[in-house]
Amino acid sequence: MIDLLPSARARYTAKAYDPARKIPAPLIAQLREMARLAPSSVNSQPWHFIVAATDAGKARIAKSAHGPYAYNAPKILNASHTFVLCTQHTLTDAHLDAIIEQEARDGRYPDSQTRQIRETMLRGYANMRRQRGDAQPWMERQTYIALGMLLLSAAALEIDATPIEGFDSAMLDLELGLPGQGLNATVLIALGYHAADDINVSLPKSRLPAATLFTDL
Ligand SMILES: Cc1cc2nc3c(=O)[nH]c(=O)nc-3n(C[C@H](O)[C@H](O)[C@H](O)COP(=O)(O)O)c2cc1C
After folding, report:
1. 65 lines ligand 1 (CB under 6 A)
2. SS3 44
3. Which atom of ligand 1 is the closest one to the Cα of 75?
4. Catalytic residue status for 119
5. Alpha-carbon distance 168 to 148, whole Å?
6. What tens-digit pLDDT sequence spans the chain (217 residues)?
7. Does 75 participate in catalysis according to the annotation?
8. Domains within the chain, CATH numbers bracketed
9. 187 lines ligand 1 (CB under 6 A)
10. CA separation for the pair 164, 143 (Å, rounded)
């Protein structure tokens, strides 16, 4: 059995990166696959991941770390890679069709009746979200599951990471042409190896005590 606690305890939010240290390609491939494998409600996968490995790509993302978010720009620029986790801004029938077709290709429907039941469930659930008017925040919550997968995966691979909500999402949407693709930038994750002057590396982790967080029934 794998013990994940040492990784969870060792990980922390990196505040400064060593720009000279790059994540090896096989590890980036693992991280990409971990994002793709993230679970989502009704397998909705309402996300898209933009990966910046080049200085030019990271500079485009860092433009959105301005004003009150300027403290995040060096992390985006000096990290080895910065991922933009995007979410679809509407739940489209075309996307639901793509999910059904993929599940069929992946062999999840042994017969047409199974497919019919699944389609009815997926489309019914999507319609309920649309009618309630909360499809977008619901989809964004799915994207955060991918963020969690990336954070724990990075820790297990001994890669430092910074989840980043401190950026101008409207500006980044325009910079990356996301509205035309039906997407919004939800959250960023910078990934790499911390710099020698990262003040956070030596600080103890702080969490509320388990006794206040869990109720056993
Ligand atoms: C969704 C999310 C958004 C965050 N945004 C930022 C950010 O914009 N800049 C930053 O330096 N840290 C950011 N953090 C890091 C948190 O401050 C950090 O996770 C928290 O203080 C716990 O510390 P630890 O990650 O070192 O265990 C963010 C964390 C999460 C989960």
Report:
1. no
2. coil
3. 11
4. no
5. 21
6. 999 999 999 999 999 999 999 999 999 999 999 999 999 999 999 999 999 999 999 999 999 999 999 999 999 999 999 999 999 999 999 999 999 999 999 999 999 999 999 999 999 999 999 999 999 999 999 999 999 999 999 999 999 999 999 999 999 999 999 999 999 999 999 999 999 999 999 999 999 999 999 999 9
7. yes
8. 5-209 (3.40.109.10)
9. yes
10. 13
